[in-house]
Write a structure and sequence with these properties.
Distance between the termini: 27 Å
Strand content: 25-35%
Order of helices and strands: EHEEHEHEEHHEEEEEHHEH
Shape: globular
Radius of gyration: 18 Å
Strand order of the largest sheet: 4-1-2-3-5-6-7
Length: 282
């Protein structure tokens, strides 16, 4: 009998900078005008961009890839309008490849990249992971490639990012509408949230020996305020019914499995996280 003790998976939260935008993108109609307040002010808010690395005995898993380092500026991939609408502040230390390097991980060491969706702040560095299997919702990839084929330059899908994915010949594994709870590794499942914030959203359910269970919700739930109850949908929304169904499903799953829910862009929650520069969860 072999008594080999398997090492525990370690989960690292990597800080990939800050973005700002009108709060109405995050919480739709968060401060609507009324007859008594006809010019209700809007708010320009700042929120974190982060990625999660799971160093698992069965292979390294990366959840999301943040923004491309070449997003901002005159020669940046983002259009002028996108840069003005979603300004990004990302120091070199926050670049995804530098965060990985701090952990002595190279892009080619990653076995799976789970793309929650393909927006500019979640899929910006996919091109680096040419060795990995890129897991994405089929509807999300289809819609994104169509926006590329139509040469659409504005919006949350960045033409220059998609161009780099195609040219780098990434290895895609698409999750069909009917697929769910896909076991990636011991204690790690891909959750299919379907359409909502985007054409097709994925999450991860992570079960760690010490920390317990975590649902990585990404932008299926932006913040605790979005989660409610009541649910507050975002201003960036493809399918409102799908969105509410996904949030209620996450709530149910969290209760049934006693899981924490990690939101996509909650500044207060992010402050509490142990960052990759400080340690890890196991």
């Amino acid at each position: 009998m072999s008594n080999i003790i398997k090492p525990n998976p370690k989960l690292y939260v990597m800080d990939n900078g800050r973005m700002r935008m009108d709060k109405n993108w995050m919480i739709a109609m968060h401060n609507p005008a009324t007859i008594n307040n006809p010019n209700a002010p809007t708010e320009f808010i700042e929120f974190p961009i982060y990625t999660v690395l799971i160093d698992h005995p069965e292979g390294k898993i990366l959840f999301d890839t943040a923004c491309n380092p070449n997003s901002m500026g005159a020669k940046g991939r983002w259009t002028e309008l996108t840069q003005a609408t979603f300004p990004l502040n990302m120091s070199e230390e926050c670049y995804l490849h530098n965060r990985l390097e701090q952990l002595r991980v190279r892009p080619e060491d990653i076995k799976y990249v789970v793309a929650s969706h393909l927006h500019l702040d979640h899929a910006g560095c996919l091109e680096m992971f040419t060795n990995a299997t890129i897991i994405v919702h089929e509807d999300e990839l289809n819609g994104t490639l169509q926006s590329y084929a139509r040469n659409q330059k504005e919006g949350a899908y960045v033409w220059g990012d998609i161009d780099a994915w195609i040219k780098n010949n990434l290895q895609w594994r698409t999750i069909k509408k009917s697929e769910d709870n896909l076991l990636l590794a011991d204690g790690i499942k891909v959750l299919n949230f379907g359409s909502g914030h985007a054409w097709g959203m994925l999450g991860l359910h992570v079960d760690l020996p010490d920390t317990g269970k975590i649902i990585l919700a990404s932008d299926a739930v932006y913040t605790a305020e979005s989660f409610g109850p009541p649910i507050k949908p975002p201003g960036i929304l493809y399918d409102s019914i799908g969105y509410s169904n996904a949030v209620e499903r996450i709530r149910r799953l969290a209760q049934e499995t006693n899981s924490q829910v990690w939101f996509g862009h909650d500044a207060n929650q992010f402050k509490q996280f142990r960052k990759s520069t400080e340690g890890y969860y196991e």
